[in-house]
Amino acid sequence: QSALTQPASVSGSPGQSITISCTGTSSDVGGYNSVSWYQQYPGKAPKLIIYEVTNRPSGVSNRFSASKSGNTASLTISGLQAEDEADYYCSSYTSNSTYVLFGGGTKLTVL
Amino acid sequence: QVQLVQSGAEVKKPGASVKVSCKASGYTFTDYFMHWVRQAPGQGLEWMGWINPNSGGTNYAQKFQGRVTMTRDTSITTVYMELTSLRSDDTAVYFCARCRRVTPPFDYWGQGTLVTVSS
Fold this sequence. Notes:
A: 111 residues; 6-stranded mixed β-sheet; 9 strands; globular; B: globular
């Protein structure tokens, strides 16, 4: 099964807001509240920043928010900061044999 | 604090096997599932499977069935991922990742283990 679809790259200036989309199907993103988002710096392990579609783990900045509509989930980062420059991955449970799907990743550049 | 510490980098020849370990600390080992996720150079994340450290039960992605085996040793709070019949496209960083339930999210990750497959 194909990965969830994310834009390859997004960019924004400090202080601005950006949104990253994650599109799947009714068998994954649209069918379950199991979407999570991860932030990954080069050479580092991913870090959980959103779970169960909209929830932030303790310690994650409230500048990160997320939502879902139909088969598309979205991550919004407000008040962009230089430290937000990283790769972002969405993930979802899927009812097919693949079990867990990831998006292809989005590289965020802070201009 | 929760820590997942993985074994060091490996270089293997095509056709060989590799076994990566992930030692857990800072929480009750048997209360959380452990998943394995890999990332080829410059590529995205790919889910490989999970193990239930309590029962030893496993579930593997179809792509890896027959080549991957996940095990655990509760006495030393360590899980293992063995991948056999290695090919060059298995070159990747392999991560263990903790999960409260069978399904994501993965709340803690190991630091990653680079496995290089090259003749």
